[in-house]
Amino acid sequence: MSKYNLPKMKCKLSKIFFQIIFSFILGNFLVASLSSQIITQDVFAHQLFNSSGEKIGNYYVQVATDPEIPTTGQNTNIMMRISTVDGTELSDVPISISITKNGQEIKKIPQIIVTQGHHEFVYKFLEPGNYVFYVELNDIYFTGKTITYIFNISTLNPFGYIFYSLITFAVVTPLVVIAIIYITNKRKSKKQISENKSV
Q1: Boundaries of every domain in the chain
Q2: In 3D, which of 75, 66, 14 has the Cα closest to residue 43?
Q3: What's the predicted TM-score (pTM) here?
């Protein structure tokens, strides 16, 4: 291999290396962005994002939270959507909600009427762990029976967000530093090559 082909190979390898680093950094930022909450209160005209749903009988019930992973000690918006299995949102559906943790009921929301297929309320999770929401729907449209939907919602200690942020920072920062060092060295080598040619 001649000494003239060597710079070309280095240039090709540097481009590939830079693209890999850039893709990895961009991927980390995209994952961090997607992990943040994308639900807003204006999504009621559509299906809920970041939600869990359950189909029983002729109904499809969805539950979503804002933020996506609730933090203990902070208010969490609980959003519900009730529709038929074909997506038609229903009005005037009576439901009641029970919230349990470790098999013990900690909150009971008496029967309410869901209008326009959506209901939202604020709840504060006091302890980290897994909570179970029992949504009892009174089927006034089809069977007249009560249908129970079960949703699991896990909470995160406030330290968890700091922990994930530190992990992201620890992964991204070295890659950025490597990329800067690599670009700097590449510019120096180009400068040296141009100086050698001019001699």
Answers
A1: 5-34+160-198, 39-156
A2: 66
A3: 0.58
